[in-house]
Amino acid sequence: QVQLQESGPGLVKPSQTLSLTCTVSGGSITTNYAYWSWIRQPPGKGLEWMGSIGYSGSTYYSPSLKSRTSISRDTSKNQFTLQLSSVTPEDTAVYYCYGVIGGMTDWGQGTQVTVSS
């Protein structure tokens, strides 16, 4: 079973860039046909898919967030990273990373990020 763990600051100031890292264990992020994604849930709202990075390094973003979102990876550390620029309080949410590998979906536990001055 693949395990994922999010890490990053829990508090970000408005206009700054939010940066979160997902560390993967029990499987390689370069495994063929594996995809690694970020999703978030604002308070009182549903889940919002933000973007994904594939096993080859190709990236895919939500059209509504594309201008502010970047997903990258460090294969040497088996990690992938989310960067969300120009954050506002509306970006306050629980952020989750998840991976789809071998037909199975595994999730991180989620991390709360609050945007506030």
Model description:
With 117 residues, the chain is mainly beta. The chain is built from no helices and eleven strands. The chain has strands at residues 3-7, 11-12, 18-25, 35-41, 48-54, 59-61, 69-74, 79-84, 93-101, 104-107, 111-115. Strands 2, 4, 5, 6, 9, 10 and 11 form a seven-stranded mixed beta sheet that branches. Strands 1-3-8-7 form a four-stranded antiparallel beta sheet, with no helix packed on it. The model has no long low-confidence stretch (mean pLDDT 97).
First-last Cα distance: 39 Å
Which term fits the overall shape?
globular
Q: What average pLDDT do the residues reach?
A: 97
The sequence of SSEs as H and E is: EEEEEEEEEEE
Strand content: over 45%
Q: What Rg do the Cα atoms give? A: 13 Å
Which stretches of 5+ consecutive residues score pLDDT under 50? Answer: none
Number of helices: 0
Helix content: under 10%
Quaternary structure type: single chain
Question: In this structure, how is the largest beta sheet organized?
Answer: 7 strands, mixed
Structural class: mainly beta
Query: Based on DSSP secondary structure assignment, what is the total number of beta strands?
Result: 11
Features:
117 residues; mainly beta
Topology diagram in text:
Layout: E1 3-7, E2 11-12, E3 18-25, E4 35-41, E5 48-54, E6 59-61, E7 69-74, E8 79-84, E9 93-101, E10 104-107, E11 111-115
Parallel strand pairs: 2-11
Antiparallel strand pairs: 1-3, 3-8, 4-5, 4-9, 5-6, 7-8, 9-10, 9-11
